[in-house]
Design goal:
By secondary structure, the chain is α/β, with parallel strands linked by helices. The chain contains 10 helices and 8 strands. The structure holds zinc ion.
C-alpha cells in the first residue's frame, strides 16, 4: 500500500477571491483519494514544518528572514504571486517539510507521494510563480547532508521549466536536474538544467510518452541516482489553464507509471510530488492529480502479487 504525505494547511491559505492559484485542490484530492481507498489512513503521514535554519542551507538567509517576517519588498512579494500572511509562512515551511518526509518514506518503502510540492520556480534569493522555497532542492540537500543518499535526480515533468531548481543545483554534481517542459511557456528566460527536454506546443500522449520512455533508461543508467524526486505536474494536461501541451488523463497515468517503473526496475526509490495543475474549477484537477497515486498504487500491488512487470 502506498505511503503518502498530507497536511490540512495545504488548502488553508486565505487568498483573495478569484486568485488563480488552485488552493482547494489539495483538500479535494486528499478527500477523493481516501474515498476511493487509493490512500489508507494508516499510510498517511503529516509532516513537520522545516525550520528557517534548514531552509537557509539552500536559500539566501536574508531572503528567508524577510519572507518569514513579512518584510520582503513589494516587488519581491508580487513576484511570488501570493499576498504575505503568517499562514503563508507556515504553509510554505510545512509543504517543504512534506517533500522531505516523502523522500524519507520513499527511501524506506520504494515509493511515496506528496499531496503538495514541486515549488521549482523558487531561486536562491527570491521566489516566483507561486514558489517560495524550493522543496525539491531542500529535500535533496538535507538528505545528502545526512548522508542518507549520495546522488539525487530531480526529474521535473511539470509543463513549466524547473528554472529555480536548475540554478540552485548548478555546480552541485550530487543533485542532477532534468526538466521536460513546454518551450514556449513560463519562465520566459530558461535556466540550464543538467538535461533539458524542451517540447513544442500541442505535444500529445503518444509523442510525449515516446520521448519519456527513450529518456528514462538513458538518464537513470547514466547518472545512477540513489533517489529520484519526481515532479508530476499535471499542467501538461490538454485542459490545463496555463499549459500548452495536450496530454489526456490516461497519458498522465502512463507517464507517471513509466517513471515509477523505470526507477523501481533499477532498485531506485521515487518520491513524487503533485506539482502544478491549474483550472478555474479546482475539482477539475482531482482526476488529473489522482493518476499519480493510482499509478503508484497499481505498481505496488502488482509487485506484491508478482503479477506484473515492475
Ligand atoms: Zn507548472
Amino acid at each position: 500500500m502506498l505511503h503518502a504525505v498530507y497536511h490540512p494547511i495545504y488548502s488553508a491559505l486565505p487568498l483573495p477571491e478569484h486568485h488563480r492559484f488552485p488552493i482547494h485542490k489539495y483538500r479535494l484530492l486528499y478527500e477523493h483519494l481516501l474515498h476511493q481507498a487509493v490512500l489508507k489512513p494508516d499510510r498517511l503521514h503529516q509532516p513537520r514544518p522545516l525550520t528557517l535554519e534548514e531552509v537557509a542551507q539552500v536559500h539566501c538567509p536574508d531572503y528567508v528572514r524577510q519572507f518569514a517576517e513579512g518584510t520582503l519588498d513589494p516587488k519581491a512579494q508580487r513576484r511570488l504571486g501570493f499576498p504575505w500572511s503568517p499562514p503563508l509562512v507556515e504553509r510554505t515551511l510545512t509543504a517543504c517539510g512534506g517533500t522531505l518526509r516523502t523522500a524519507e518514506l520513499a527511501l524506506d518503502h520504494g515509493i511515496a507521494c506528496h499531496l503538495s510540492g514541486g515549488y521549482h520556480h523558487a531561486h536562491r534569493e527570491f521566489g516566483s510563480g507561486f514558489c517560495v522555497f524550493n522543496d525539491l532542492v531542500l529535500a535533496a540537500h538535507l538528505l545528502l547532508a545526512q548522508e542518507r543518499v549520495h546522488r539525487v535526480l530531480i526529474l521535473d515533468c511539470d509543463v513549466h521549466q524547473g528554472d529555480g531548481t536548475a540554478r540552485l543545483c548548478q555546480g552541485h554534481p550530487d543533485i542532477i536536474t532534468c526538466s521536460l517542459h513546454c518551450e514556449r511557456n513560463f519562465p520566459a528566460r530558461k535556466a540550464q538544467s543538467h538535461v533539458d527536454i524542451p517540447l513544442d506546443n500541442g505535444v500529445d500522449d503518444q509523442a510525449y510518452l515516446t520521448t519519456l520512455t527513450e529518456l528514462l533508461p538513458w538518464l537513470l543508467n547514466l547518472y545512477q541516482p540513489d533517489l529520484v524526486l519526481y515532479d508530476a505536474g499535471v499542467d501538461v494536461h490538454r485542459d490545463d489553464a496555463l499549459g500548452y501541451l495536450c496530454l489526456s488523463d490516461q497519458g498522465l497515468y502512463q507517464r507517471d507509471r513509466a517513471v515509477f517503473a523505470a526507477a523501481l526496475e533499477r532498485g531506485i526509490p521515487v518520491a513524487a510530488v503533485i506539482g502544478g495543475g491549474y483550472a478555474k474549477n479546482h475539482a477539475d484537477l482531482v482526476p488529473r492529480h489522482q493518476q499519480l497515486f493510482v499509478a503508484a498504487s497499481d505498481l505496488l500491488k502488482e509487485r506484491r502479487h508478482g503479477t506484473g512487470h515492475p
